[in-house]
Amino acid sequence: MSTYLPTLKQLQYLVALHEHGHFGRAADACFVSQSTLSAGLRELETLLGVVLVERTRRVVRFTPLGNQVVAKAHRLLREAEELSDLVQSHGLPLAGELRMSVIPTIAPFLLPRILPRLRAERPQLKLFLREEPSGAAIESLHHGRADCVLLALPFATGEVECEHLFNDPLLVAFPHDDPRDPPPLVTPASIDENRLLLLEDGHCLKDHALAACNRPELRASATMIGTSLHTLVQMVDNGLGLTMLPEMAITAGILANTRIVARALQSEHAYREIALVWRKNSPRGEEFRLLAEELRAG
């Protein structure tokens, strides 16, 4: 067995550089100076006796072996996190630090309603929130940057455990007094594909909306331009088309001060499933189930 082993800090520096592709941004992510991060990586390379990163003035390029080491480093760091979680899970439930990623189509609408009660009832819980799209959130989960993720299903999550919270219906939103406004109960066939506005790629709500309509041609015809639900609402309010909104956002008041009408969609799949997910076999599984109960109660 080698006397000299890489430290977790060195592996964190390596993973951060691989993620950000830039020494300065990687150092900021690790809360150290650039010189400290660079020195730590050189020590790691010297320790292993190999070159992991090719450095030029413009490009940071990982060697093939460097990419393999990064993949192994992700697993080691995740297991180190789980070791810490194992110890913490034997203390008070929902106490200490917990990092949760939340997708943008949930965070501004659900969290303001839930967090005040959670802070009051769980004062020892230090909840660190990170808002990011579903793909990035799941990547953060598997790489150990997040302990759990609050997101909408269906979505490809990999090996995780999941706790269902509730179903969030999808409604069709039209400009007020639009002459093409359909009857009170909207059918997928009545949606004009040339006027449908959806979130751009990277947002799972786009796929949920298209799946609810079950019309393959919509994927080719719909305008995928919105960067947020608030942007879509402004576009619809200005008569530029129609969109689909989750009931959660409407309940939170996203249509306030607009002349938009939201109507139910007649479809078997006109909803998304809101769920809390975490890494499979996490020692904090029972704690996450308790958190799910708290979120469900909100």
Automatic annotation (TrEMBL):
The entry's keywords: DNA-binding, Transcription, Transcription regulation
Family annotation (PROSITE patterns): HTH_LYSR (PS50931)
A GO CC term assigned to this protein in UniProt: protein-DNA complex
GO molecular function: DNA binding; DNA-binding transcription factor activity
Protein name per UniProt: LysR family transcriptional regulator
InterPro entries: LysR_HTH_N, LysR_subst-bd, WH-like_DNA-bd_sf, WH_DNA-bd_sf
Plastid is among the record's keywords: no
Family: Belongs to the LysR transcriptional regulatory family.
HTH lysR-type domain residues: 6-63
